Amino acid sequence: MRVTRVCFLFRVSMTIYRFLLFCLLISPFSLADCLAQDGLGGMNRLSEKLIRQRWQTHQQLDVMAGLSLIGAQWRGLALLNLEAASYPFALRLRGSVRQGLLGHYSPDWDEAYDFLRLIQFARIQTERIYARIGPIQDLRHGIGHVVNHYRSSTSWDGRTIGAELAWSRGIFEFSGFTADLLLNNLVGARACLNLPYASRIGLNYANHSPTGLTAWSIDLQNELFETGRIAFAPYASYAWYTQFGDGLAFGADVQSSGFLDILSFRIRVGAFYSSRHFIPGYIGTLFSVNNDRNRILRSGTDLQHITSDDFAGLRLQEARGINDLLTEFELQIRDTFWLAYSWRRHYGAQRLSEFYLRLFMKTETYFNLEAGIDRLGERTFTDIFTAFPDQSALMFATVLRIRGAILLRTEARYTFEPINSVPHYLVQRRFEPTLGVRVNF
Question: What 3-state class would DSSP assign to 14?
Fold first, then answer.
């Protein structure tokens, strides 16, 4: 099996190489042609688009105070939020301090790395290059066969500050990322070729050094036809973990990048066929807290006597394979509204279905809303309407202008806190309403 796989990869590599020599510099493509469709982390996040036109500048400071409920403990909260933007640069810094009757909240400032955690994002983006540092958000490689909606901030107090980079020249485009600037966590890369006849092929790589997990995938997509600025583009993907299983994926997108010059949308339907020891999108939202080294503990676990039955979710080597059906929908209306939905239904005895939802909307400076829900370990679609299980993450934030420069900000998170030194993780619930003023300068 290993010999066959090596031979297959060699033939694919030689084919790509010959095609590259033949097609190099045939036509110019912008960075967005390939990578924007792949959803590289924060590249197209509306919440990070601080200016609309290149000639604009933006400098803003929010000074907030309020309450913080983490677990069962109330504390006072002071928060500063600084934003600045001038094409092609954008920056957001945020720092907070919490103090209660039992003292300060130690995860706020207990290590030098907390200074890095002040960075929400710092980015540069032109037509040819994109670079960003900050917590990795919703990163996907290709169709998401292996790396799918990955986040480095699932455990909020333990979030890592990573980096993303994308570059294009001619038909060739490259992107890479690291989940931690210290380079001791998850790293990945993607090479993409924009080919004639609206085709593209991508080769993806990811490695998680703490567990030694290495994954590869190859995906191919072709835009068969376009009518009325709506395109039909089928795709295929093959992915494998070097020490575990492999899988195939097939599907199609119906998409438009400028329908009626108002909105963009994508509808995807796909199917996964997986061997044993393979889970589609395994490096996903909860991967940083649920892998071969770190595990999520079920609620109510006796921390003094942890057994294998106390862990939520499955490790990769426990997966039995079989089939999955995927449905996705994404809609963006100009720079004011974005909705992304995904449901992967697993057809097998194990609870491996996955639900993903993102929402963002804003009305100039008066109102912002950002929400995200992730639920793993479900069985059927109706399960997503039940109480949040242990394999869940939630983020909800609103900013409302009360009057003049006075703002009300509310943030809620369903996140995870590390337990012991391994670490394993327990669910942590947070709710933080604050009131403050905004200064533009």
Answer: helix
Query: Quick one: tokens of 89?
Result: 């640069």
Q: From residue 91, give the alpha-carbon distance in Å to each of 85, 122, 137, 219, 386.
A: 6, 4, 16, 33, 38
Give the residue among 435, 436, 437, 415 at the shortest CA–CA distance from 426: 415
Give pLDDT tens digits along the chain (441 positions): 444 444 444 444 444 444 334 333 333 344 444 444 455 778 888 999 999 888 999 999 999 999 999 988 999 999 999 999 999 999 999 999 999 988 899 999 989 999 999 999 999 999 889 999 999 999 999 999 999 999 999 999 999 999 999 998 888 999 999 999 999 999 999 999 988 777 899 999 999 999 999 999 999 999 888 887 899 999 999 999 998 999 999 999 999 887 777 889 999 999 999 999 999 999 999 999 999 888 999 887 878 788 888 888 888 989 998 899 999 999 999 889 999 999 999 998 899 999 999 999 998 778 999 999 999 988 888 888 888 888 999 999 999 999 889 999 999 999 999 887 677 899 999 999 999 999 998
Q: Cα(106)–Cα(108) distance, rounded to whole angstroms?
A: 5
> Does the N-terminal peptide bond of residue 88 adopt cis geometry, omega within 30 degrees of 0?
yes
- Beta bridge mates, 192: 173, 202
CA distance 69 to 74: 5
Please name which of 276, 242, 267 lies closest in space to residue 352, comparing C-alpha atoms: 276
Number of neighbouring beta carbons within 10 Å of residue 391: 22
d(CA 317, CA 213): 11
Among 116, 118, 121, smallest CA distance to 50 is for: 121
* 3-state DSSP assignment of residue 386: coil
Paired residues of 57 in beta bridges: 86
